[in-house]
Amino acid sequence: MKQLTVCLSCLLYLACSCLVACNKYLDIVPDNVPTIDHAFSNRLEAEKYLFTCYSYLPQDDHPDKNPAFSGGDEAWTYWPMTEDFFFLDPYNIARGNQNVAQPYMNYWDGYDNKSLWQGIRACNIFLENVNNVRDLQPYEKARWTAEVRFLKAYFHWYLFRMYGPIPVVDKNLPVTATPEEIKVYRQPVDSVVNYITRLIDDAAGNTDNSALPDKITSSTTELGRITRVAALAIKARVLVTAASPLFNGNNDFGGLKNNNGQLLFNTQYDAGKWEKARIACKQAIDAAHAAGVKLYYFNPAVLTVTPATRVEMNIRNAVCEKWNSELIWGQTSAGLPAYWLQTYACPQLDPNMFNMNLKGKLAPPLKMAELFYTRNGVPIEEDRTWDYARRFQLRTATVKDTGIQEGYRTIGLHFEREPRFYADVAFDGATWFMRNGNYNIQSKLEQHSGKKQSRLYSITGYYTKKVVNWNLVYNNTSLDVEYYPWPLMRLGDLYLLYAEASNETGNPADALHYINLLRARAGVPSVEYAWSNYSVKPSKYATKEGLREIIRQERAIEMAFEGSRFWDLRRWKTAPQVLNMPVFGWDILQANYEDYNRRVFLYSPRFVAPRDYFWPVRETDLQVNPNLVQNTGW
């Protein structure tokens, strides 16, 4: 599919041009009717334009449209690919091939037919014209206006996270704007953050006068739209990011400035940013609780399941169950939410069936398997009771070994791990629970889950179980995938953001409380108990630096395969250390236990700091607008 390429200057110049069509919501405008006037002539047409603003949301549930799935180190795949993809962009980013001539996943100019500047322009058009709708009730106008203000903030946020300091487009430029007015400047980081959070504050209001609902009551028509809780939660994420090392006291970008001399990064560390983030996180948590949002716990209803399966489904269905109690904001774009993600992730489960639609290619590398805790709730290299030195030696599973087929041989790394490991990841010898039964993953060469041809297999030997809904069923000729709204924000994520901000502001008790809520749901002992009784560093959690390390690993585990790690590694400034580590998997071309369970080098990724923290602006955009400066290193 050819990508839309429209430069920012052109977008600004065309600020009042005709309405951008949305093939899902907008009807063809009758002849001789001015487009904008028609779009706001009545309530029905204005609502269509509201949905047009929503249509610019990037499709974050799609593995080829969200860089956080395949553009980092959480998943790897075979290469080159000639089938089974929409875009190769994220895979090229992961392999270190980003460039300035035709940047990959270029949401600045247009990617997947979405330019976020165009989305911002659509929001501005809505805000400029909503007062012209004659039959719109005041409460509807207030709510729709708040939604579009939030979307406008979110599009700025999405660009900010990718590009760092960006231009702020608060109002569309008129068609009479001079060439010099069109040549906009990037704004300093702090200014952009303040603008985004101010827009969200305007949208969310306060408890008494918010135009946004606290929760969606019309589940048949409005699920996926913005609530006050969602707005506050995204504000919390923005402020935690702004307080993090990438943006707070970072000298790497001290020389990045506009051609008028304006510095774009404040290199002075400001502890107050963490306090603002902590307050925002707590406000969002309180609003979520008041609206009935709570951690998800699996209720099998008519099914009888083991305690271990119940815990596993606590974890999996916190992501995959439709509109569950933990979801704060779910994305339903394109009508097939999480469909492609599930088909990319799910291997062949049944030895008696084969379905070409199950790709099984979204493959976690070995480093992700090593990330999860032992069953005692501490890192594998810290647990004094777990045999770290012999983790790559073969063992035979017994009936007592959770998550592994009895009598199967696999490496010690897969034994005695925490429940989130078995809920998130599958491997040769793993079990896979679905509503219609238990399946055994056997993925050595020519086995039903393994490699049989040049495609449809895991290059590492691991599979991303976490994102596959347990209602998926298939046979040789058909596949039935239960769609679910992709969690752009869930309560567990918000708890971890608050824990991080609490630790940074000297409130470790609050941090531990919210971490332990998530650990309890996952069947993992509290931080204090686990480290005191099992870690070779028993007092680690008692220091700010030690607890920071624990929080970061806790976040990497709890949010694994949900599109968080890619951005977290950047904002923490740990990407150079982590993303330059070699990618390893198992020898999937082997048919016996000994040869298959041999570690194999797959690729050596390349993350160049500080260059790769941000996307480059395309070279031609800089030629069109000389006031735009390129990001450092590009």
Please, could you describe this protein's structure?
This protein has a domain at 8-58 and 107-293: Serine Threonine Protein Phosphatase 5, Tetratricopeptide repeat (Alpha Horseshoe), CATH 1.25.40.890. With 634 residues, it is mainly alpha-helical. Helix 6 packs antiparallel against helix 7 (138-163), helix 10 (228-243) packs antiparallel against helix 11 (271-290) and helix 11 runs antiparallel to helix 16. The chain has 23 helices and twelve strands. Strand 8 (473-474) and strand 9 form a beta hairpin.
Summarize the model shown:
This protein has 634 residues and is mainly α. The protein has helices at 8-13, 35-39, 43-55, 67-70, 89-94, 116-129, 138-163, 179-182, 189-204, 228-243, 271-290, 307-320, 339-345, 366-371, 419-424, 491-504, 508-521, 527-534, 544-558, 565-571, 575-579, 593-596, 619-624, and strands at 327-331, 394-396, 409-411, 425-427, 431-434, 437-440, 462-464, 473-474, 479-480, 486-490, 583-586, 599-603.
